[in-house]
Amino acid sequence: MLADIKLMVSELVASGVMHGSREPDDAVVLDVLVNGEVRCRVLDHGTGFANRVAQARWRGWGLRVVEQLSDRWGMQCTSDRTEVWFERQCA
């Protein structure tokens, strides 16, 4: 289970760094909560990711990995921020 969580976190952070930055020094925020389950969210300043979700599903493995290994996942996009999150029950 821990290996799966590490993989999902690394995929979301890498995606945030690659696709979510407008400027080279823009922050990518990782927020993790452990309370009977692991809830992780990655926030970045990207705006175009929402328009590329369908393409991203077929081009890369990141969202496929999160979809397959998480219990629940989702994304919320606004004009100045993208948040992708997942939940996984602790065994």
What's the helix and strand layout?
Blueprint: H1 2-19, E1 29-34, E2 37-44, H2 53-59, H3 62-69, E3 72-77, E4 82-89
Antiparallel strand pairs: 1-2, 2-4, 3-4
Helix pairs in contact: 1-3
Radius of gyration: 13 Å
Number of separate strands: 4
Portion in helices = 25-40%
Q: Provide the number of structural domains.
A: 1
Structural class estimated from helices and strands: alpha+beta
Compute the average pLDDT. 84
Low-pLDDT runs of 5+ residues are none
**How large a portion of the residues is in β-strands, by DSSP E?**
25-35%
Q: How many distinct helices?
A: 3
The CATH architecture designation is: 2-Layer Sandwich
Q: CATH class, anyone?
A: Alpha Beta
How far apart the termini lie comes to: 8 Å
* CATH H level, superfamily name: Histidine kinase-like ATPase, C-terminal domain
CATH T-level fold name: Heat Shock Protein 90
Strand order in the largest sheet = 1-2-4-3
Detailed description of the structure:
- By secondary structure, the protein is an alpha+beta fold.
- The chain has one domain: Heat Shock Protein 90.
- It has three helices and four strands.
- It has helices spanning 2-19, 53-59, 62-69; strands spanning 29-34, 37-44, 72-77, 82-89.
- The protein has a four-stranded antiparallel sheet, covered by helices on one side.
- Helix 1 packs antiparallel against helix 3 (62-69).
- The longest helix is centred in the N-terminal third of the chain and has 18 residues, at 2-19.
- The radius of gyration is 13 Å and the shape is globular.
- The model has no long low-confidence stretch (mean pLDDT 84).
